Amino acid sequence: MPPSTLSVCFDAASEAAADLLPALFQLLCATHPDRYGIDKITLFINDACQIDWPEVAWLDIVSTGRPPGSSREATDHHRTCMEKHLQSHADCILISLNSPCVSHSVSLVLASDFTASQFGQADSSAGLLDRIRHTIEQRHRNKDLEELRGVVVFSCYAIARLSSVERTLVPKLTFIPQGVEPQFFGPRNDHRRIEDVTHQEPFVWLSVLTHDSVEPTIAIIEAMDALRNVGAFVKLKLLMPHSVGGHRVDPDSCERIENLSADYHFVEIIKDCESTKLVEYYHESDGFIWGPRSDRNNQFVLYAMACGLPIVAANSEMVKKHLGPKIRYFRSNESDDLANSLERSMADIHFRIIGGGLNHKRSMSYTWEKTAAELFRLIRAYGEITSESEALAQ
To answer: Can you give the residue range of the structural domain that contains 330?
Structure first.
């Protein structure tokens, strides 16, 4: 196959994908794949996706059937058929419509050198097709296909389906929202989002412990809104306990925060929650924003660290000031295991540092867009521990 051509394979073996296929075919016809150097598009389908297709030169339909046996055997059979095809196509885009073997597809990509794209069932049909068009056009604009080898594009929903072994390889994968430079963005945990079918988009929960610091809290909300505007799937929990660090929460400030955040549908406010219950919310979240007024809530940050959450910290001095003494306190008075967990988190710098700090008034001049970019980097790192945190604070 000439290096300037591509084969595009749609892994469309799920019943959910069947609803998308007619619209997908219309899109491809309108896109004229041959204009983009794509000489062949292959659809891998099973018996659940039987559709009458017009005969066109650039489209192949490969039916993998549904052999007798367990669903696992059917998945393995489907994957084998895909592997045989992909082994003979060095330059290949694989687009999975969230088939039953989505994680197998990711494994296959990581073990190969072809380009792959994965999209999740949770995406709307229109959004999915737009991304497919964007992906094809992007390949066309980039003449050097070598730069695209090994890039995997998938939705948050697909990440949630990966096995624990495959998650260790996640930093190698890339999610590209439409119109945004390649970034990685995906949830940390595995099963909670899949069950909630009322949401039309996959999302990542971030918890914010807030009380009487109105402006920094709104700054965080606006930063998240900026992220959503560039294609990120993120939602916020604003945790408002009765008191923090022995200080009674100001009800007027909480009311202002509630009123100012009312226009942001991705914000959930949890009012009057007991401080002892906060750790339960951490377990339901994918990240924790430390601040505002972090001098009063550092113990909750420690619990968030113990849960293994990636942390957005306001500044490095606050980290040094509060966490060391707290770890010594836990070791002396509560639990060696907890103290050890926190020490490991600190040793690995389980933080991303944001500029002048979201809990200081001077940070208000720190633009929402830049703050959002920092938060985006935190999430796309998938909790990956790096030593760059201190550099970000400079």
So the answer is: 203-393
